[in-house]
Amino acid sequence: MTQPAPAESSASPIPPQPAQGASRSVLTLGALGVVFGDIGTSPLYALQATLDPRYHLRAAVTDLYGIVSLIFWGFVFVVTVKYVFIVMRCDNRGEGGSLALYALINRELGAATPKRWLLVGALFATSLFFADAMLTPAISVISAVEGLGVVSSAFKPWIVWIALAILIGLFAIQRHGTDRVGRLFGPVMLVYFITISAMGLYHIAQTPQVLGALNPIWMVTYFTAHPLFAFLSLGAIVYAITGTEALYADMGHFGRVPITIAWLAICFPALMLNYMGQAAMLLRNPEFIDNPFFHMVPPQLTIPLLVIATLATIIASQAVISGAFSVTQQAIQLGFMPRLRILHTSSQARGQIYIPAINWALAVMVAVLVMGFRASAAMLPAYGLAVVGTMLITTLMQYVVVFRIWRGPWWRGAIGFVVFVTIDVVLLASGATKLFEGAWFPILVGLVIFTLLTTWSTGRRLMRESMMEDGLTLPGFITSITGSVHRVRGTSVFLSASPTGLPAALLHNLKHNQVLHERVVLLTVEVEEVPQVDPASRAEIHPEGHGFFRVILHYGFMEDVDIPRDLAAAAVQTGIPFEPLQTSYFLGRQKLIASSAVPGMALWREHLFAWMLKLSESAMDFFKLPSNRVVELGSQLRI
Question: Which burial class, exposed, middle or buried, applies to 432 when counting CB atoms under 10 A from its CB (0-12, 13-18, 19+)?
Answer without folding.
Answer: middle
